[in-house]
């Protein structure tokens, strides 16, 4: 897939600088399942598309991204019948260098306009040997989100992905820490191949975590190189100047993806963008608001306490989300599951968002199993298990959340919670 020389050099640098992005932690974790690696299938040619994933761009368009080993056209042919492609679109091609690694050709094409809730068949780079299909989200309620953080590439990741694939979801939300490449760039390629069966069929909307930073002082000073090159999200359409934070509307839900590892203080571009984005929300069109961060603002686990990405970001932005009537805030980072009551400024508040930590996708570092005792009154449910969540927004007023534990490789619903939208609650002025 890519040129890589001196892997020992890369590993040594990665180990030396892991502490700069918070990979080194001070608490003990149980071991996760073994790492897995997805090599390039031997039957693929240098111009065959691989690592295919899609993301939503506005209400009726999709971005399709893929990688080829050598040069190939950035073209997508698509239609509503297999092999019969009535439409085509062209896009751009790029690549990136990271130390001694050079990526393959990264292709990025936006297709549309597309009909809602419709299956489209497509092929990439004029390669007739691989046909893919995708389903667009519905135009209105109901809509089902799969939510999973800190995925990684382990046996637990495989189990989580299998359970998500059985859920008939419309869109996946991922609050950071995707591949756990941690400087070893071929692991980004392995991750792309691992998630392709799901990510090529439904839009995956992601934000960054600490494992995406991949900044090494002096030798590679630019952060998020691989993440920004491989996972282009629709930040331009939301008025953002950074791929690290953006928003979009889907089926009556306004989703805000925030960046825990870029500036967030009141003088920052992200803070000013968030202010402007919240002012533009029209609750009759999008009665639900969901926000995604990586480092949780509320956390009763012993892991990741006192980090500025949590505490200072909460101090800067919690008031903005509260005043706007954000319904739910999803986070990752802590490798466990926890759901809080509606909360604001550290106290239960019926007009505050529900905070949910869902950093349990299957990472290689294991689970964060030590919780504070006693359990805080604002914490409703917590458990150190791998799993994923499903948020089904049924209509403008009600939604149901279910957390699925990976219990002996069987998807078990361990926590269920019914929401009423804050926009429908007369006691909350939104």
UniProtKB/TrEMBL annotation:
Keywords: Glycoprotein, Hydrolase, Iron, Signal, Zinc. The gene is LOC18598209. GO terms for molecular function: acid phosphatase activity; metal ion binding. The keyword Chloroplast does not apply. Its cofactor is Fe cation; Zn(2+). It catalyses: a phosphate monoester + H2O = an alcohol + phosphate. Belongs to the metallophosphoesterase superfamily. Purple acid phosphatase family. Pfam families: Metallophos, Metallophos_C, Pur_ac_phosph_N. The keyword S-adenosyl-L-methionine does not apply. Its EC number is 3.1.3.2. Residues 46-133 form the Fibronectin type-III domain. It comes from Theobroma cacao (Cacao). This is Purple acid phosphatase.
């Amino acid at each position: 897939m890519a040129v890589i020389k001196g892997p020992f050099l890369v590993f040594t640098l990665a180990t030396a600088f892991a502490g700069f992005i918070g990979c080194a932690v001070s608490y003990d974790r149980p071991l996760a399942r073994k790492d897995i690696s997805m090599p390039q299938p031997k039957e693929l040619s240098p111009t065959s598309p691989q690592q295919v994933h899609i993301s939503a761009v506005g209400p009726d368009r999709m971005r399709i991204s893929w990688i080829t080993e050598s040069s190939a056209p950035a073209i997508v042919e698509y239609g509503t019948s297999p092999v019969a492609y009535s439409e085509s679109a062209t896009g751009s091609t790029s690549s990136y260098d990271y130390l001694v690694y050079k990526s393959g050709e990264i292709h990025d094409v936006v297709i549309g306009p597309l009909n809602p809730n419709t299956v489209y068949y497509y092929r990439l780079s004029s390669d007739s040997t691989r046909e893919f299909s995708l389903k667009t989200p519905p135009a209105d309620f109901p809509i089902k989100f799969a939510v999973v953080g800190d995925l990684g590439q382990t046996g637990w990741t495989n189990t989580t992905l299998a359970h998500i694939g059985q859920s008939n979801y419309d869109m996946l939300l991922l609050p950071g820490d995707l591949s756990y490449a941690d400087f070893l760039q071929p692991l980004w390629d392995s991750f792309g191949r691992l998630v392709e069966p799901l990510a090529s069929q439904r839009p995956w909307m992601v934000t960054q975590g600490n494992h995406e930073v991949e900044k090494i002082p002096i030798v590679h000073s630019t952060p998020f190189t691989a993440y920004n090159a491989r996972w282009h999200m629709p930040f331009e359409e939301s008025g953002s100047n950074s791929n690290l934070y953006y928003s979009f509307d889907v089926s009556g839900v306004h989703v805000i993806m925030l960046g825990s590892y870029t500036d967030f203080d009141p003088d920052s571009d992200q803070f000013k963008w968030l202010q402007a984005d919240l002012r533009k929300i029209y609750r009759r069109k999008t009665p639900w608001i969901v926000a995604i961060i990586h480092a949780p603002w509320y956390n009763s686990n012993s892991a990741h306490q006192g980090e500025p990405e949590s505490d200072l970001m909460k101090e800067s932005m919690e008031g903005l989300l509260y005043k706007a009537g954000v319904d739910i805030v999803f986070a990752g980072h802590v490798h466990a599951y926890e759901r809080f009551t509606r909360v604001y400024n550290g106290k239960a508040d019926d007009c505050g968002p529900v905070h949910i930590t869902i950093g349990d996708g299957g990472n290689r570092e294991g689970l964060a199993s030590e919780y504070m005792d006693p359990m805080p009154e604002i914490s409703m449910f917590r458990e150190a298990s791998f799993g994923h969540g499903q948020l089904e927004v049924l209509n403008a007023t009600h939604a149901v959340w279910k957390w699925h534990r990976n219990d002996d490789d069987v998807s078990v619903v361990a926590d269920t919670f019914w929401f009423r939208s804050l926009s429908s609650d007369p006691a909350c002025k939104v």
